[in-house]
Amino acid sequence: MDSILQLEGVTKTFTDVEAVKNVSFSVKRGEIFGFLGPNGAGKTTTIRTIMGIIAPDKGKISFCFDGEAGHRLAVQEDKKKVGYLPEERGIYSTTKVMETILYFADLKGADLQQAEKDAREWLLKLDLADYQDKKIEELSKGMQQKIQFIIAVIHRPQLVIFDELFSGLDPVNQELFKEIIKELRDQGTTVLLSSHRMNLVEELCDRIFLINKGQKVLYGSLDKIKDDFGVKKVWIRYRGEKKIKPSWPEIKDFTQDKNEICFTLPKGVKPGELLSQVLQDLEIEEIAVNKLSLHDIFIATVGDDKR
Ligand SMILES: Nc1ncnc2c1ncn2[C@@H]1O[C@H](COP(=O)(O)OP(=O)(O)OP(=O)(O)O)[C@@H](O)[C@H]1O
């Protein structure tokens, strides 16, 4: 898979904050790429440099549309190939919903007849069909966010960047957008998704970049990151209420709740060998051995600093 977007050594310093330090990654054509990090990590700053809203102090950002050679997003024509949902929400406006969507579609050079047809379909899909003639300011925050989503995709961009798409959406709408993002990917759109919602990222993305304090922490395929991390989480439910006192030095983060125990095994410890010793005198009802979730890896990697 070739890259549609490439960042090489991107650095951005504000007066007294090094917001982004030497960040490099590439987004492959047709993938859903997760861009993660705690609050203040540098995600939005990186995205704004990608969108050409702020210039990086150092580094190179290049796009490669339709197999062309990579170049900066300077040309107006190229900007039309990218969609962007910014983190800051609210398009408070007295303009009507459909007019607003078509205004942005026009700015991005979309065919207006096609855009109007697409807009109707999106509004229907997002449960806003009755709102097309309402003023934007009459919509709730979540509804306005849906309109911003439509604006980001109305010109059928090749690459779309969602900065915290899921924030402010209720669980039903989060599920709806999860499906929509998969559909966009299946239709050939590349998606860069910045988010704190680890469970959603885990379900949607094959590859991620985790940034903390402006710098790379983890980058690559989620499966490989989990394998490299190596820690396994073990959960066991057994018959009876025997109190367990683990005497095995390999076991970490041990907790017990009635007849359920949970612990982690560090990288390199083979669960089979240990469990055969641990389980000798327990009558097991259920057992699960899993790689750490992205949420656990996130906490383990950046949590200490945050605390
Ligand atoms: N315009 C600015 N002027 C000064 N400092 C800024 C500016 N924009 C961002 N920063 C600083 O840069 C750092 C990174 O901010 P950024 O908004 O990129 O983080 P983020 O990862 O998007 O955070 P969040 O998840 O909280 O939105 C922060 O320390 C922030 O205070």
TrEMBL record:
<feature type="domain" description="ABC transporter">
    <location>
        <begin position="5"/>
        <end position="238"/>
    </location>
</feature>
<dbReference type="InterPro" id="IPR050763">
    <property type="entry name" value="ABC_transporter_ATP-binding"/>
</dbReference>
<comment type="similarity">
    <text>Belongs to the ABC transporter superfamily.</text>
</comment>
<keyword id="KW-0813">Transport</keyword>
<dbReference type="Pfam" id="PF13732">
    <property type="entry name" value="DrrA1-3_C"/>
</dbReference>
<dbReference type="InterPro" id="IPR025302">
    <property type="entry name" value="DrrA1/2-like_C"/>
</dbReference>
<keyword id="KW-0547">Nucleotide-binding</keyword>
<dbReference type="InterPro" id="IPR017871">
    <property type="entry name" value="ABC_transporter-like_CS"/>
</dbReference>
<dbReference type="GO" id="GO:0016887">
    <property type="term" value="F:ATP hydrolysis activity"/>
</dbReference>
<dbReference type="InterPro" id="IPR003593">
    <property type="entry name" value="AAA+_ATPase"/>
</dbReference>
<dbReference type="Pfam" id="PF00005">
    <property type="entry name" value="ABC_tran"/>
</dbReference>
<dbReference type="InterPro" id="IPR003439">
    <property type="entry name" value="ABC_transporter-like_ATP-bd"/>
</dbReference>
<dbReference type="InterPro" id="IPR027417">
    <property type="entry name" value="P-loop_NTPase"/>
</dbReference>
<keyword id="KW-0067">ATP-binding</keyword>
<protein>
    <recommendedName>
        <fullName>ABC transporter domain-containing protein</fullName>
    </recommendedName>
</protein>
<dbReference type="GO" id="GO:0005524">
    <property type="term" value="F:ATP binding"/>
</dbReference>
